[in-house]
Write a structure and sequence with these properties.
Layout: H1 3-24, H2 32-37, H3 73-85, E1 90-93, H4 110-115, E2 123-127, E3 131-135, H5 140-146, E4 152-155, H6 164-171, E5 177-180, H7 187-197, E6 201-204, H8 209-213, E7 227-228, H9 231-234, H10 238-248, E8 256-259, H11 262-269, E9 271-272, E10 284-289, E11 293-297, H12 305-310, E12 315-317, H13 322-329, E13 336-339, H14 350-355, E14 361-364, H15 367-373, H16 377-404, H17 413-425, E15 430-433, E16 438-441, E17 466-470, E18 472-474, E19 477-478, E20 481-485, H18 492-509, E21 512-514, H19 523-531, E22 542-544, E23 553-558, E24 573-576, E25 579-582, E26 586-589, E27 592-599, E28 609-614, H20 632-655, H21 659-668, H22 684-707
Parallel strand pairs: 1-5, 3-4, 5-6, 8-13, 11-12, 13-14
Antiparallel strand pairs: 1-2, 2-3, 7-9, 8-10, 10-11, 15-18, 16-17, 17-20, 18-19, 21-28, 22-23, 24-27, 25-26, 27-28
Helix pairs in contact: 16-17, 16-20, 16-21, 18-19, 20-21
Amino acid sequence: MPESRRLVLLAGVFLLTLVNLTQSGPIALRTPEDWDNAPSFGDRLLRKRSPTVSERPGCKEGATIPPNRVNTTKRLIDLRIQMDLYNVSAYIVTSDNAHQGEEVAPHDHRREFICGLSGSSGTAVITKDAAAVWTDGRYFLQAENELDCNWILMKDGEAGVPNITAWLREVLKTDEKVAADPTLIGTTTWQRYDKDLAPIEFEPLPTNLIDVIWTTGRPPVNTEPGFILHLNYSGESWQDKVDRLRAELPKQGADALVITALDEVAWLLNIRGSDVPNHPVLLAYMYVSSTQLVLFAETSKISSPEMQTHLTGVTQRPYDRFVAELPDLAKSASMVLIPSQFVYTGGASYAVYNAIPETKRLLKPSPVLMMKAKKNTVEAEGMMNAHLKDAVALCDVISLMVEEIPKGVRWDELKVSAELLKYRAQQEVNKGASFNTIAGYGPNGAIIHYSASEETNAVIGTTSLFLLDSGGQYFDGTTDVTRTLHFGTPTAAQIKAYTLVLMGHLDLARLVFPKTTRDARVDVLARAPLFDQGLDYLHGTGHGIGHFGSIHESPTRVALGSSVENTFFENYFFSDEPGYYKAGDFGIRIESILRVIPTTFSTEFPDRFFRFQAVTLVPFERKLIDVTMLSDGQIDYVNDYYILVRQKVGAEMTKQNRTRAYNWLISQTEPLMLPEPVNKGVSIANKQVWVGIWTQLFISMFVVFKFY
């Protein structure tokens, strides 16, 4: 056969094979394992292969099984039986309750039940022959430990990881069906899933399949009643707040509003509850118009005489009637504002959205969200006072650890959490923790949102770092503070890493900026020292914080790449929390709350700028600071901060007769000094300038003597 004909024949065979392969497309690749055997050519097969179970380090042959791994085999079998009964090919389980908040009651931990991941963020998707969990960088290490090998770990944001709908399109046929509970998914998310899955059907299934199979060991719902947050703490009556809200609605293009976020209901009516752990809220909805003010809540939660007097003028309806009664409530409205997802606020569920007539739907962020974020004078001063008391409690516990751990007294992660609860409870109007304490020693500290358990509880020693992230709830404010500690002699590498994180923390805290600056854009200041060393961290740098409310409050989010950017306003409170995490070794995070305040200058721009005021008043870990790495401005900021800490926290400790804590505080807040022989105040940059000047001088002298 001539060579030319042989080449043509081979090309034809190749093209025929290629066509056959490409026509099989994604339908032929129905399971993650199929990707392993798929050819790497063909127009529709050139995509990146999705992650598989076999790629997980903890699921490889011979891998050690973590003690906190959850066996989900029986649960998945039970769920798939229900999926068959309802003719469902894939079922989506979110982390949310019906209010789309970040924190939910244990009774609503459906996603944790089905997959074992206990972190606050994650979505599980179960098909007939595969199961996958999507979560963010805070939980990558935790998920690897807690998920058994029934589960694919999808690391959100990493290269080659498909989103939920892309993966479902890979593993399902076009005539199959995906379902979820419409009360547990926000409207914006539901609409996106529905669009991206097409032509695969996405069905709202009123029967929650997890509720059907979770018949034993499910935590009960809370039965404690709600309570009033009085005017000396709230600073404004609920009647005045409602008047302001009603005046705002026409500006938003609506004459009615549904309120589904628990912290918004709590703030608007000056009521609180205990229905969600660590968040002082009760399960409730509201409907507000110019003539209607309706609260949907369990009767037993608001039935006390004091509460009934407080709520005079508010129509009260049973909690579980909200969605059913929305169509009638909306009859008198021209346009109903339905809260959309916005930063940390999940927005109204798809079930709520669907209950409003289509011609009356206005989907946009809740105006209550913005009203709540800007603290009034009473709230702002309350936040300052709460953080002062909280600093006393935290410093007291740390001083006790500093005293006892080097002597060999046993402290473990769970003990620290328990002691913090006890010491915070000694402070006035404390109402417990604002979130579950993150107390991680050594490798556990590298798990960003680590939660100690009996299986993982580590004894705190003197060789590694201890990351402590905790907070308290008080009638006058909410706190959130992280400090990283060392109870022995740190290594040079530990000191360098800590100092890099501290530098970023300080640079953000001492920023002065135009009032039009967007929150996400200041993130780079906190990361720059780490970037300079080729390092980073997989979480945002800052979040808003509520007043006796949510630990993560919209709208403030300081995070590079954020899809939503907002400006700062006076009396916004938010966190400054850069970190560094070395997997298997240690974690570092330094977090302080900052308050946005105006600053003035005697220039042509006298009122153009904001700056931040320190709210958290807890010393940094002195032995982990390499002062020679700091600039003059950073050193000056720390020393001024320490003066403030001594003045305020020291005085409060003296008032409370906390001698041990006071002595520790004084020892930790001595001024930072550059070591001799370097003169105080000469920064590294200045030293480099002087080296350059002397070099130029010697060169000039050489030229003079050589040529003249």
